[in-house]
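Students often ask why we bother encoding 3D structure as a string. The short answer is that it lets us treat folding as translation between two languages. Here is a chain of 387 residues written in the first language.
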Amino acid sequence: MRRTERAGIALFALALACAAAASASASREAPTKDPARWALFRGDPQLTGVSVAKLPDELAPAWVFEVPGGEGIESGAAIVSGTVYFGALDGGLYALDLETGKQRFKYEAGAEIRTSPTVAAGLVFVGDASGKFHAVDAATGERRWVYEAGDEIVSSANFAGDRVLFGSNDQSLYCLSATEGRLLWKVETEGYVYGTPAVVDGLAVSGGCDGFLRAVRISDGTEVKKIEVGAYVGASPAVDGKTAYFGTFDNRVLAVDLDSGKVRWTYENPERKFPYLSSAAVAGGRVFVGGRDKLLHAIEAGSGKPLWTVATRGKIDSSPVVVGSSVYVGSAGGELIGVDVETGKLRFSFDAGSAILGTPAIAAGRLVIGTTEGRLICFAGVARGGA
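And here it is in the second language, the structure alphabet:
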């Protein structure tokens, strides 16, 4: 009996040790958000557009950086380790000090940059209008490698382990080795792959201008799902759980179940029929998306029921970002607005003086966004004078 008891105790201890190891491994592998980082377009691999940073209630410009020659900014920014990275239409990838706006380096890509930079493993990844995809040292701005796709790259990069994924207007979704730039696989489609692929459960989820949403296995490039949505998709899908949310060019916002491949619901504004290029944000059971109808829309994530809209002066191709109880977005009318996520009540408004097409980047208590006249603006809390 004692031997049996000892064996039972040993087996129980082994089971506990295995469970602890599994828990630790899961903890290490689980993606976590960092309030000091906004490392890629939409903030996380699932492209949910949610920041865990805290923003002050009152914001004001802390600094403004002007691109030489006034060349525009359509790119969103990345914020990592106190550095802001963004691309401009002068072909420059810029790195600035987050606190001061002082330039740390400029990397010359050689063609217009519309894609938002992605930062991982000490590298900055960005595509350009000539179809080149660049890997740049995040500290020095030195080129590590360049891969040439067949046409312009507007899609931002996403990551899965040591693999980097992006789409191109050559109608392909690419997967490269992040360290070497070696092609691992590509999936050819029948239209531009304009949006950024979401990464979830070992799959790259990508919409395209051929009217399909695809789920591709990242390990080998196998197309697991090909879901017809019936319209051009220029936006990036935001994936929450097993559902992908995105707008289309036929004036609809869709929720697609990735397991069944079926459309769960369709939202369409009853009065204004305009396309959606803005990528959705998903938080707290709500979907937020900008439209070319000049409205920011809030939709119930479970049902597709409309909750509220907020009007702006221009179309909204900028993608909204949720931080705390507010959602921020820019418009082609030059406004940056922040509204209450539950009511749509306006909390913040700033006139940037020219169109805003890029998505806000929010980290380390600051919001960074660019304009089409080449100004990158960093917002921070309003300084209070002494007594």
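Translate back mentally: The first strand starts at residue 50 and ends at 51. Keep this in mind for the problem set.
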